[in-house]
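Re: the 159-residue chain
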Amino acid sequence: MTPVDAASEPDEPGRASPPVLKNPIFRRLWLANFAGDMGNQVTTFALSITAVVFLNPSAFEVGLIAALSRSAYLFFGIPAGVWIDQWSRKWVLVGFASLQTIVVASVPVAFAFHNLTVIQLIIMAPLLSISSLFFDVAHTAVLPTLVGRDRVSEANARL
C-alpha cells in the first residue's frame, strides 16, 4: 500500500487522512468562504459609504445601516444553528449566497435607474446580515462531513 493509499483511509488506527487542502470539495468551500468574507466586509463598509457619498443621509441613518449590518448575529445567532440542523445544509449555503448576490446586485441596478434610496440600504443591511449568519453557520456545520472528524480543527484553522 502506498503512502497516498494509506493516508486516504482515516478510520484505520495510526493512519492519518490527507491534509484538508488536498480535498477538492474543501478547497471550493475555502474559496467560497474567502470570497464571502471579503464580500461581507466590503459590502458592510460600502453600504455606509454609498449612503454618504450618493444619498446625503443623516447621521442616524448611517448609524442604523451600520448597526443593522450585524444585527442578525444578535437576534438569530443561537436559533440559527438549530434551524440549520433541520434543513439541507447545501441548500442553505446556496440559498443564502444567492440571496446575498441578489441583494448586493440591487444597488447598481437601482443606482442606474436613479432609484437608490437610504431606505433600500436600510432594508439591505439586515438581509445581508441574515444571509451572512446562515451561510457561516451552515458552512461550519457541513465541515465534518467534508473533511472527516479527524481534520475538523485543521479545516477550521484554514477557514
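DSSP finds seven helices and no strands in the chain.
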